[in-house]
Amino acid sequence: MNNTQKLYHAIANALTVEIELINEETNSDNIDGWDSVGMVRLMIELEKQFGIKFDVVEIVDFQSVNIIKKKLEKKLIKFN
What 3-state class would DSSP assign to 27? Predict the structure, then answer.
């Protein structure tokens, strides 16, 4: 599984939605459950999937797949 697939799975698991709903256009406006509690669950899931740690302040910006990818890239996670 590549890092994009891992990211999509993490988002789907954290927000309890079907993986098919997750793509590059996915954001907090088009997924139910992507709220403050969902973002905390997402942070935990991402930490588990990628073996990294986020500061709680960082999750405030978790508003879209693209933003999350950029945050992960800053932690040296590479995407194709």
Answer: strand
| pTM score, whole prediction | 0.91
pLDDT in tens, 11-65: 999 999 999 999 999 999 999 889 989 999 999 999 999 999 998 888 888 999 9
Q: Evaluate whether 27 touches 63 at the Cβ level (below 8 Å).
A: yes
Rounded Cα gap, residues 12 and 26, in angstroms: 11
The two tokens of residue 42 are 């997402």
